Structures are given as C-alpha cells and as structure tokens.
Amino acid sequence: MQLKHPAVAGTLESSDVQVTIHPNNGMGLDIRIESIVKAQFGDAILETVEEVLASFGIAEALVRINDKGALDWVIRARMQAAICRGADCSFDWKGEDA
Amino acid sequence: MEQRVSLKRTSLYVSGSSPANINEAVFYNEDCIVYDLEDSVPTSEKDTARLIVYNALRYQRPADKYVIIRVNGIYSEFLDEDLEASVRARPDALRIPKVESAEEVQKISAKVAEIESQVGIEVGSIELWCNIESYLGVINALEIASADPRVVALALGAEDYTASMKAQRTKQGLEMFYARNALLIACRAAGVDAIDMVFSDIDDLEGLREDVSMARNLGFDGKTAIHPRQIDTINSFFTPSKKEINYALRVLAAVEEGKRLNKGAVALDGSMIDKPVELRALTTIAQARAAGIKIGGENHAG
Amino acid sequence: MPVNAVGRELPERIGNYLVKPYQGTNALEPTSKKVVSNRVLTLRPASGSKVVDTLEQAIQATGLKNGMTISFHHSFREGDLVVGQVLTAIRNLGIKNLRFAPSAVVNIKNPSIVDFVRDGTITRIEASGIRGELGDAVIDGLMEEPVILRTHGARPRAIEAGELEIDVAFIGASAADEYGNATGQIGPNACGALGYSFIDVTTAGKVVIITDNMVDYPCVPASISQQYVDYVVVVEQIGIPEKIGAGATRMTRNPRDLMIAQRIADVIAASRLFKNNFSFQTGAGSISIACTNYLADRMEERGIKASFALGGITANIVEMFNKGLVRVLEGSQSFDAVAARAIAEHPNILEIDNAVYSNMYGKGCMLDKLNFGVLTALEIDVDFNLNILTGSSGEMMGGLGGGPDVASGADISIAALPIVRGRTPSVVNKVFTICTPGETVAMVVTEAGIALNPRHKHYEMLREDMEKTDLKIVSIESLRQLAESFTGKPKQIECTDKIVCIVEYRDGTVIDVIRQIKR
C-alpha cells in the first residue's frame, strides 16, 4: 500500500497513543518512538508498529509514535487508522477473515 | 430456540474514542458493556473508533461481561462499515439506535447475516438490542420486538423521545411514564428484555435511586448507565432479595426432582412450574451470583 | 554477596556504610545502648534575645563547617521556602561537603536541591524520600555517596543510635518569639503539626528557628520550646500557603479509585476488629481520603466509634472527629489548612512527635497500637512486598514515609492500588525496590479483587472474616497474571553496579538498595 500524504491518529490522553505517519519515498522505514513506558515496553511497541506496517505492505514511511501508556491493541488500532487515513482508503475488513 | 439466561441489570456505555475508559470498564460491576460508535464519537473519529473497538474485543475481550456494540444510525453513512467491523468483533449483541419499524430490524438482521456467513460464524448468533427513542418507536414497539429472532431486548432512550414528543425532560420523569409502560408491555408480549433509559445527572445518586426504584417496580430488567458511579446503585435494585433467592432455589429443586422422577409437570406450593417460571428462577439465581451473593455454601476464593 | 530476608543480594559494605541485612520482623533484638545527642549545655544569651539579623549570620554563629550535617522538616511540603533560602546562604558562605538530612526532601524548584549537589554544597543526603528532579538525578548517578532513605520510624532511631548526628537543625516555623518558642499552628504560613522536627530540635548541636511571623513573647501555642533553640532569624517569607495545604490531599473522582476505596472500607467493616474503640490510619493518598469517607459511613451505619486516628491528619478525619466518630486524633503532620487549625481548636486533636508516632526503639510507638492501616503503593509483588519509591521504569516517585512502619505496627495492614496504571502493571513478580516486607502486609485491595497474604500473622482470622462476606477474594498470582494479560510482559529495567540509594528498614537494617539505571 502507498501512503499519499501525512496523517495522524490518536490522542495524547493517558492510555492512548498518537501516531503520525508520512510518506518516505525511496527512503525506507524510519520509526521513532517516544513513550512513558519506553524502558519496559519500547521493544514491544516497535515490534507492533513494524507488524502493522508489514500487514499493509508498507516498506517506506516516517512513523512517529508518541505513547502515553497505550496497551498493545490501542497502538495497533491507532496505527491502522493512521495508515488508512494517509493512504485515503478504508480498512480492509474482509482481510480480517483469513 | 432455547432462551438463554443472561444478566442485563446494567449496561455501561463506553466511548469508542477513549482507550482509558475501555480499559477500566472491565473492572466495574456492570453486566453489559456497550462500546459506543455513535453519539460519543465525533464524525471525524468514526474510522478510528471502529478500529479501537474491533481491536479491543479481538485482543482483550472482557471475560465475564455481555458485550454490545452500539453502531451508528440506520440511515447514517457510517452504518455499513460499522457492521463490517462490529460483526467481526464478535460481540454478544449489536445495539441499534432509533429503531422505528420491524422492516428496519429485518434489513439490519439480513446485513448482519451476510457478514456472519462471510466471517464463518453461525448465522443468527449475534443478538440485537433495539433502542426505542421516538414516538414511532414506541407505537411500533411490539412489531420491533417480534421482528426477528435476533432481537432480545428493547432499550428506551429518553432524550430523543422527549424531543420527538415536544416534551420537557424532568427528573421525576412523568413525561416518560407512558413510554416506559408501552415499551414494557411490548417486551413482555414478545418475550424480550426491557431496558430502562439513562439517568443523566451523574452527581445525583439520590435521584438515580428514585429513578431505578421506579424502573424496577414497573418491571424493567435493567437500566443503561452512562457513568461507572451509577453501576452499583442500579445493580442493587436489580439484585434479588434473600426471599426471592430462596423461592428460586425451591423452584429449581422442584424442577430437578421432577426430572429425576421423569414427571412432565411439576408443582410448587400448589401452583404449576411452567417454563417462564423456571427461567425466571434461573435468572434470579444468576442475578444473585453476579452480585457476589454466595449461594448454597459456594466459595469464590481461588 | 549476603542475601537478606526478602531475598535481595547486598554487598557487605557500600563505601563507608556497613550493611546490616534485613533479617525479618521477628529478628529484632533489644538494646541497652545510650541515646546519642549532640545537644550541649548552653548559657543564656547575653542580650535577652536570640534574634540574628540574617541567615548568614545565624549560620556563622552555629559554627557550621565543611562536612557537617544539617537538617530540616518537611511540614511545608511543596510550599517550602526555607530549605532553598538556607542552602543559598550556606553556599554564599562557601561552606561545602555537607550531609543534608531533612525528614523528607520536598520537591522544591528555583533553587533545586540538585544545584547544591552539583556545586558541592551537599555531598551526602539522608531522608525519607527524594522525589522530583533530585530523585531523577540521583538515580541517574548524580552523587558519589549513596543516598540513605529511611522510613519515618527509622530516622529518629538512626539519630538516637548515633548513626545520624545532626550538627545544625534549621526549623521553619509559622510563628515564633525572640527567645525561640515556635509553632506551625498560627500565622499566614501555618502548616499545623511540626512533629517531624522534634527529634532534630532535641538532639542537634545547634538549632535555628526561621520564621516570617515574629510574635510577642511568649509565643502560644509553642510546639518547640525555647530551651532547645539557639537562634531565631526572621525572613520575608517561609512558604507559599496554597502549596503547603495542597499536594498530598485531594478527593478523587476517579471511579476506579473510588471503587478500591469503597472495598477497603468494606474489608475493614467485615473484620472482627471493627468494633468500638478500634483505631486506624488511612493516610493521605487520593484513595485513602475517599476510603476515610466510606469508613465514616460504615461507622455511622453500625454505630461504631474509634478510639484514635493516627499519622497525617486531613480535613475529612477532622470531620469524623467533629461528628463524634473518633475520640482522639494523634497527628504528626497536618495535610491541609483544616487539619492545621484543628490542633489549636480541640484539646483531643494533638500534635505528636514523629518518634512517638513511629519509632519502635522509643519504648514503643503509637502505630504499634493500630488496628487498621491503609498503605498506598506503586507496586506489589507476589510475596506482598511493597514498592513505594520507584516507578517501574526506574524513576523516583515518592518517599518511604511511614508506610513500612504502619505495616509492621498495625494488626491489619491493607495495601491499596490498581493492578494496572496505563500500561504499567503494578502487581508483579518482583517489585523494583522493596520498601515494606511482604510478611507485614495483610492484604491487597485492587479493582480486580482482594488478595489475602497467607504469610501474615492474622491470615486465619482475616480469611474467616472475609469468607462471611460477598467480597471477591482472589490469589495474588491471579492478579499478577491478569495485570500482565493487559500490559504484556514488561522488560526488566537494566541497572549498573553502582548503588545510588540504600533503603533502611525501621530497625536500621538494609531491606533493599537502588542501583543506577542504565540509560
């Protein structure tokens, strides 16, 4: 999937995460994580971010994570929303049935 | 279809916009959580709320709650994708805003069935709660409640109803008295549960008590809560008394005895125990257990 | 490396500090040591007044020199303006290398304590806690010498045992007279009880009272007597009133905290010890305050009255007193303006010496007579050990306070915390820093259920009492698993070998150490 423009999803409220995503044509992936639980969960957050990007087939993007203690599924949801917004598409619900 | 015993004393609305509230909701004592995609979610956030609710249920479904998703209105542009997401989240039920006719219910049921079969879950397994929040809804309550086997409950919505009636909302709620009774009569006739409207002033626990007391006395099975603070108060009114529990236990014992002796019909204190009486007894015991009441020497320690 | 009774590996020495490993709460030995005091026989002042014009003059007059020990109390909390002014004056005089030993370090800014560490004014710190900027800097390796953290009960013990000898005590007071009689109860910056300063005043080599409110002789009420005071200095301002009464105490509206608070009250009400003349300490966290209110309701419903409430006193405990629900309030600290005023207004609301409150080597202390104590905590582990100091990412979050003392003194000590905060699990396998040993914690109350500690001395009694109720009793391990099912498994915080804090238990043994965080 191709990102068309920058997009944001999520908030800076406690237990939420704000994901900002930009196209990064020809430059690969650049993921930066700020998190109040980085010491304990920084690696886990990165893993989830990469997994969601891969599930959309995105290999080029600037991703900024500003995490306020979001649980894993919240990060997943906000990532999916940011990507769909940046790519101007709806989420592929049928893809979940596989 | 065998009627299930499920508890619906309290249904707590939780916004699909708030991960923090979703996380905390599982720890309160509500029987049902209603993940909301409708009124609490701004138009610009419908996409991410859907994903939040879907992922919440996929990865962290509360173990001992009845899970409901409230989708957007029947004529809104968001409904179709709400259904795609919600059915795949496999809730116990969907809550449909402002239902006014049987036809609307059937249309939604058909859409749900289509997605159920795509997803590979048993068609008909997702139940429907219909919100009744207009005079038309009240007039057509019986046909709505009987429209489809999926429908298990009607829930009253006071704000939109009173607006449609040009009525004033008051704390005493006399303007809702007819609608409450009309909805109850329809629910009883159709054999579905009746869920009372929200009490909006979350700081007025005394007012809430009076309001729930009235709902319980009229016959409602439960009430919608808009804040966790309201849950224990509402539950307390829908929690059976010791006397009711003892009667229920005697009913169930008599039924067991009847089964053991292979009797077709069983009587207690001179009256027959038919299926509704038995179900009511089961519900009473379930309500008591959910309230943490220890029945017959059972122990929650573990 | 020796291992102490809670399983922590400790070196035999840390610099010059000789480690006595914690041996368990039953391993305490009687002692016949004489009490150590630096107080000296001092002839009356020639002038009839102890007033000195400036802080600098007072400091010079005390003979403060490089390497000495200075102390303060923390009763002005976040509103303290005394510590910063005194340290600035000391710096102006070029005195360095001091041991800074307040009852607790309050989180002051402009100047921050960190500044005085960086410029060498302070090289050692001993206190109850080092929150805020200082705490973060210490845990990142700011100081050469490890900070010694002591509970409220451990500090007077260390002072009287000669392990912490105070050369000069600087005591902020909201009113004082020219001869040094002083109080925290009146004046524009009233803070109430000064119970944490009594041990300093009676044992320090020199005592300086600092006030912004000079009153006619004699100052009444006087919590601090002239017989201990060497000098009095008047400064423009000793505190910020709004911040003195704020901070620790706020009524929560968070429904999760309210649920926990309500359950604590349910647990207390279900205990057989909940009867006339029972005693309690609920504390000042947001859960604690809410719990006090629910407890008052249960007492009214059942017609039960308490003999005394102890520790930090809050407005809602004073309200219980006014309703006749509690006979005596014994306060070492007053957490808000209502509690501060109440001491002067009611003979049964008392200001008590922190040593009377918490020092187990003072021939017994009041918290040994408690029936119920509520303990808030950052983390609890499956052995019921509590961490009240460090956040799970290794940041300094609080002070030891009196929690570990209360846990060991009270019949029923109740830890209260949510199992998850954001993505941080608070029921874990091993807490990051052990402050309160698990064997002294009777139970934990969370939003997801109540767990009883099978190793606690009153376990059987509690289990019987709780089984009679509808309260949801679960195992601590199930709470831990539930928390982890939400958050995922946290990665362990990596530390270097450098010890930055020593955590002393109330008997002066080492219960844990904090090592520098690897960044």
The tally of domains of chain B stands at: 2
Look at the structure and name the CATH superfamily of the largest domain in chain B.
Answer: Phosphoenolpyruvate-binding domains
| SS elements, strand count of chain B | 10
Strand-residue proportion of chain B: 15-25%
Whole-number average pLDDT of chain C?
Answer: 94
Helices and strands of chain B, in order, run as EHEHEHEHEHHEHHEHEHHEEH
Count of helical regions of chain B: 12
Physical arrangement of strands within the biggest beta sheet of chain B: 1-2-3-4-5-6-7-8
CATH domain fold name of the largest domain in chain C: Glutaconate Coenzyme A-transferase
User: Quaternary arrangement of the chains shown?
Assistant: heterotrimer
Q: End-to-end span of chain C in angstroms?
A: 25 Å
What does it look like?
The complex is a heterotrimer of chains A (98), B (302) and C (519). Chain A is of the alpha+beta class and 98 residues long. Chain A has one domain (7-90): Ribosomal Protein S5, domain 2 (2-Layer Sandwich). Chain A is built from two helices and four strands; from the N terminus they run E-E-E-H-E-H. Chain A has a four-stranded mixed β-sheet. Chain B has two domains: 10-237, Phosphoenolpyruvate-binding domains (TIM Barrel), CATH 3.20.20; 242-290, no CATH class. Mean pLDDT of chain B is 92; it is low at 297-302. Chain B has 302 residues and is an alpha/beta fold. Chain C is α/β, with parallel strands linked by helices. The longest helix of chain C is centred in the middle third of the chain and has 17 residues, at 286-302. In chain C, 59% of the residues are buried. Classes of the chains: A alpha+beta (98), B alpha/beta (302), C alpha/beta (519). The interface between A and B is medium-sized, with 24 and 22 residues.
